[in-house]
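Class, discuss our next protein.
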Amino acid sequence: MNKPDYLAPQTLAEALDALGKHPHGVQLIAGGTDLVPQMRSKMVQPELLVDLRLLGLEGIEMTGDGIRIGARATHTDILESDLLAEHCPALVESAADIAGPPIRNRGTVGGNLVNASPAADLAPPLLVYDAQAVLASSRGERSVPLEEFFTGPGGTVLSDDEILTEVYIPPVAPNSSSKFIKLGKRKAMAVAVVSVAARLTLDDSGSISQARVALGSVAPIPMRALKAEAVLEGHPPSAELFAEAGRVASSESSPIDDIRASGEYRQKMVAVLTRRALAAAWGRLGGEV
C-alpha cells in the first residue's frame, strides 16, 4: 500500500480547497471500511487522503418536516436513532444487516452511497423514501434525487471537486409503512444476493395512493422498480396484487451471474422478496394477506 499525504481539515471550505488543488490525486476518507481494503489491494493509490472527521457531518435530525442524515453518520447511528425507527424503519432494518458491529461502528452513510456498489444496503430503503443526496463544492450546493445519483458500478454523479455532505429524506406521508429484506449467502457479514425495500402509503379509502419498490444487487445500480409501483398504485392491498407487483419487479431487474448466485435465481428471488416486503409493510399498517 502506498503512503499518501494526510489532511484533516477543520472546515468544509478547507476540504473543498484541498479537492480543488488535487483534482485527481485526492481521496476522501470517512470510516475507511471500503477505502482501506481498496488501498491495500492497490485498487486505488491516492496522493492525498482528506479525512472528513472534523467537519461536523454527523448527526441525524428533523429539519422542518424532513430528516437530515449527515454523511458521516454511521450505520450504528442509524440503528440507534429513535427518529429513524419511527419514520424510516426500512432504513434501520438495512443498517442492521450490514456486516458486523465493528464495521457498523465505523462505516458511514456517505461511504456506503459514494462507493456505489449495486449491492449497497442503504440504497434501496433510501430510494423508497425519495431521499436526496446533498453535494457541496466551491461553487455552492446542489441536491440530487438518489435515483439519479448512481451512474454504474462504482460510479456516481459526484464531480471531482464535490463532497457528499448529507442525505435528506422528505416528509413521509401519514398512513405509510415500509420494509427491507436482504437475501445473503449467510445471516451475517454477507453481501446481498438480492435486496428489496418497499413502502406503501394508503389513502382514506384504504387504497394504495403511493408505492415505492427498490431493488439491490440485480442491476448495475440500485434501482426503483417503477412498473411494479404503477401496478400497486390506485388499488387496495391484497396478496394477489403484491404477487403481481413481484412478478413485474422481477421482469424489470437485469441481474448477472456471479460467485454469489446466478442471474436466473436472483430474478426469481426478486419476485418472492418483493411480495414479502409489500405484505410486511401492509401488515405494519394493520392489514393481513
